[in-house]
Amino acid sequence: MRILVTGAEGQLGRDVTRVCAEAGDEVIAAGRDRLDITDRAGVHAAIAETRPDAVINCAAHTGVDACESEEERAHLINGLAVRWLAEAIDTHGGHLVQISTDYVFDGTLDRPYREWDTVNPASAYGRSKLAGETEAAALGSSAATVRTSWVCGEHGNNMVATVLRLIGERDHLSFVDDQIGNPTFTADLAIALRKIALERRSGIHHLTNAGSVSWFEFVREIVAAAGRDPAMVSPISTADLDPPRPAPRPANSVLDNAVWRLAGRAPLRHHSEPLAELVARLAG
Known about the structure:
Elements: E1 2-6, H1 11-22, E2 26-30, H2 40-50, E3 54-57, H3 64-69, H4 71-92, E4 95-101, H5 124-137, E5 143-148, E6 151-152, H6 159-166, E7 173-176, E8 180-181, E9 184-185, H7 186-198, E10 203-206, E11 213-214, H8 215-225, E12 233-236, H9 258-262, H10 272-283
Parallel strand pairs: 1-2, 1-3, 3-4, 4-5, 5-10, 6-9, 7-12
Antiparallel strand pairs: 8-11
């Protein structure tokens, strides 16, 4: 299978590129210097030249707080650029796997969110990613959208890397205990994304590692995996954050991987397993 990975130099893109290459795929790894997805002509030219069987779009504006003051830029990268990819795939063939987010929900539901639940993004980032979902859906059965959450990997800024840095600088940490979600690890997510591309799955999928926790609980797990005392972490409420974050966060980001499960697929591992592996790699 020939796979074009956009955003190939990012946290998720690097693991998707690695997983596909190890599986024997012909991988076209396109970082922004090779393919700027906001350039419509460039996108059409790249798809026409490479004729990929699948495009896994890992390119995104992921700065949640920055998106609040850069909403047009967020919509260009996370929304309109997906239209350019969809246009080119519709013209030349192939399949699109679009990455989306738990932020398309407002976080007020009292149970895990299923793929069919009503979306209501509360942030500019969430609105821009929802726009990308809409653009991908225009391809019909030639596209799948994968919503994920709390992404962590070896290559990039994420909660695991941040906490490992902080415990080398401080004796005490405070994290919110009123936001819950599923930590998801790129090493596992990348394998599932390749399967979706290979099988030409369509529609919306939720894909996260198993096990929901608060940020406070997750940070305690990271600290413990690093061999430190989790008692060094204290809970605070979102309202007590100083300074407050510009972008609102969903209180409930837990995603039920219902489509994956009902299709008979094995769930992604409990997050504690890839967490231990990642901490060992980053601390080694």
